[in-house]
Specification:
Layout (H helix, E strand, L loop, with lengths): L2 E6 L6 E6 L2 E7 L7 H11 L7 H4 E7 L5 H18 L3 E4 L1 H8 L7 E6 L2 E5 L13 H8 L4 E4 L3 H9 L3 E4 L2 H13 L23
Parallel strand pairs: 1-4, 4-5, 8-9
Antiparallel strand pairs: 1-2, 2-3, 6-7
């Protein structure tokens, strides 16, 4: 049995999931964006069924979202995941946030959004590896996409209200669903390449981003 421990800090709250293939062995979602990731690690460890073998011995990799997103949250998540991977002696894998959110959105074929901080959003449309443009507010996004378009993403309540007020529809995704999808993406990586080439964050902080 090989396992992947995945964590995401790009959405409305941090989340963590331990997976074996597509099976979620244990999962956790923070109460708010400020919930420490160590709480999640304790909850995941406590939530593993007694019948599951010791997860540390079977852990193949630790994975985390690499951005884009809020820089401070991304930095905290990546640093925690890398430190944990080093301590456990397993490779670290970085997964693009858009891939994780798109996976969590399931059959949603429309645009996906990721919070950029201060009410702004990054937006992806189907088939694109990079955002449509720089982070913008919901009103500008509605102009760009067109009123009535449904976007999918894990956003906080204030941002959700702004999206709807701008004339867009929103399919909200739970943070733990993003962590599940992130783990599935990381689990599909070729084991022979893990730890050899690690993706760099595609988010580069600039003045005013938080």
């Amino acid at each position: 049995m090989t396992m992947v421990l995945a964590m995401d800090t790009t959405g409305s709250a941090p989340a963590m999931a331990l997976l074996h293939g597509d099976e979620v062995l244990a999962a956790w979602q923070g109460d708010s964006a400020q919930t420490p990731l160590v709480n999640g690690l304790r909850a995941v460890h406590a939530g593993i069924r007694p019948s599951v073998p010791a997860w540390r011995e079977h852990l193949r990799t630790v994975a985390a979202a690499m951005g884009p997103g809020r820089y401070a949250r991304l930095r905290a998540g990546v640093a925690f995941a890398k430190g944990l991977a080093t301590g456990l002696g397993v490779p670290f894998v970085g997964v693009r946030s858009a891939a994780a959110v798109a996976g969590a959105a399931g059959g949603h074929a429309g645009p996906i959004v990721i919070p950029a901080g201060r009410g702004r959003l990054y937006c992806w449309t189907s088939g694109r590896a990079a955002p449509v443009g720089p982070a913008i507010g919901p009103p500008e996004l509605a102009v760009q996409l067109g009123s009535g378009v449904t976007v999918a993403g894990d956003v906080d309540d204030d941002t959700a209200e702004g999206i709807v007020a701008a004339g867009l529809r929103l399919r909200r995704i739970r943070p733990v669903e993003v962590a599940h999808a992130l783990g599935r993406v990381a689990g599909e990586r070729d084991p022979s390449t893990i730890g050899v080439t690690v993706a760099r964050p595609i988010y580069v902080p600039t003045a005013g981003h938080g």
